[in-house]
Design brief:
16 helices, Aspartate Aminotransferase, domain 2, 446 residues, alpha/beta, 7-stranded mixed beta sheet
């Protein structure tokens, strides 16, 4: 077993974080990386290769966070390093049409079932923002439906009931308390938002009867990735697709987290769902900033230049370095056996962790499959939605468990709302180490 973190030298990490707090708000550039989440000074990472990362004090960890899912190929994959190094030598960015973006788009279209055309953005948040603008322009409606617990980026209208709260705060499912996720957003912003419980067909049918004729879009993750890894109930996505078609509402499938993770064409391929618009990010860029909006020409062509166009500007859209990485990444993902391996390694990790919890008689479940999963300390056999997560998941116990894993060389965020990620760089040996470390952590936890 790897040496415990508490016996390692962390002096340089602490020094760097002290300096960070002098120049950066909270010492970070995103609050999910800060001391409030880690309940201590975060580990300052300096380099990575394959499935491993090293901190500022040269302590080594097996990384199962993988930049919140962005690093589908692990760290510093040689093919990606080669692609970006060559591109940098030729010129990083031109803000003009390049062969790099054409090649990336062609590969994207071959893999994603619903992508007649694609528009690249710089982030997933930009992609979901553009998707809603397109839906509103296409339908000439303004309202949209979003689900409790789903996160679609930090665009103002999406920041409603995305964070977990106590059961007393969230209200009844048929009349949920509307809780903004941020200060600085006018309350009128949410007048156009219909808030719905996820994974509940009866509630969805009722809300569509009440609001369907006014909705431009329904936006959903195919798997609820903002509360860990909550899977859709049987036929839920099918019924959602049927209802949106019945009412002339566009279905926006947010695959920023799930895209290119479960299958070459994402969850829309895995679950055989054909959305009107889909959004991507994270794994698409293999660690480089990226977002994408895909769909039919009839919708996306509204961005063509005209007096009544849907406006989408961006100096760094289709950034040449990123496009080179995207093309190389999609080539790697298209190789025979890639997804078979991702699922096999992930399923082995899930099975191993479940056996540890069973043997240790801990009330914990491992939910998900293949390349993405989450651990819930709960009395329940499964977590199906936002409300079950808020009511029945012991997020504090999970955070303590992850801190113990960190002490023994497993790198993961203590946030229960995120998820464990398997990359192509992970091995059976990594899984064996994870299971061994989890066994010791459970012994210390109980």
């Amino acid at each position: 077993m790897t040496q415990a973190l508490k016996t390692r030298n962390r002096t340089r990490s602490q020094q760097w974080f002290e300096r960070a707090q002098q120049s950066l708000v909270e010492g970070v550039n995103s609050p999910s990386r800060g001391a409030a989440v880690y309940k201590s000074d975060p580990i300052v990472l300096e380099r990575g290769r394959g499935s491993r990362v090293w901190d500022a004090d040269d302590n080594q960890y097996i990384d199962f966070m993988m930049s919140f899912g962005a690093l589908i190929q692990g760290h510093a994959h040689p093919k990606l390093v080669e692609a970006v190094s060559q591109a940098m030598a030729e010129g990083s960015h031109f803000a003009a049409v390049t062969s790099a973006e054409v090649e990336a788009a062609e590969r994207f279209r071959r893999m994603v079932p619903s992508a007649e055309v694609v528009r690249f953005t710089n982030t997933g948040s930009e992609a979901t923002m553009l998707a809603l603008r397109l839906a509103r322009a296409h339908t000439r409606r303004t309202k949209f439906l979003k689900f409790e617990g789903h996160y679609h980026g930090w665009y103002d209208p999406y920041l409603l009931n995305s964070h977990s709260h106590s059961p007393a705060e969230i209200g009844a499912p048929e009349n949920p308390t509307r809780i903004p996720d941020s200060q600085g957003i006018p309350s009128s912003t949410f007048d156009e938002v219909v808030l719905a419980p996820w994974n509940d067909i009866a509630a969805l049918e009722r809300l569509m009867r009440e609001h369907g004729s006014d909705l431009a879009a329904v936006i959903t993750e195919p798997i609820m990735a903002n509360m860990g890894c909550i899977l859709p109930r049987e036929r839920y996505l099918d019924r959602l697709r049927e209802l949106t078609q019945d009412y002339g509402v566009l279905l926006i499938l947010d695959e920023v987290v799930t895209g290119f993770r479960y299958a070459p064409g994402g969850c829309q391929e895995y679950y055989s769902i054909h959305p009107d618009i889909s959004t991507f990010g994270k794994a698409l860029g293999a660690g480089f900033p990226i977002g994408a909006v895909a769909g039919p020409r009839a919708i996306l062509d509204r961005m063509r230049w005209s007096d009544n166009m849907v406006l989408h500007y961006g100096t760094f859209n289709g950034h040449r370095l990123t496009m080179k990485v995207v093309a190389a990444n999609l080539d790697l993902l298209s190789a025979e056996g890639t997804y078979r391996k991702l699922h096999a390694i992930g399923d082995a990790a899930i099975a191993g962790l479940r056996e540890v919890f069973r043997r240790r008689k801990l009330k914990a479940i491992v939910q998900g499959f293949g390349p993405m999963f989450q651990i819930y300390f709960t009395e329940r056999d499964a977590i199906h939605d936002y409300r079950e997560y808020c009511k029945h998941v012991d997020t504090g116990r999970y955070a303590r468990f992850v801190q113990l894993l960190l002490e023994h060389g497993i790198y993961m965020t203590p946030s229960n709302g995120l998820h464990w990620i398997i990359s192509t760089a992970h091995t059976e040996s990594d899984v064996a180490t994870l299971v061994q470390v989890a066994e010791q952590a459970c012994a210390e936890l109980s």
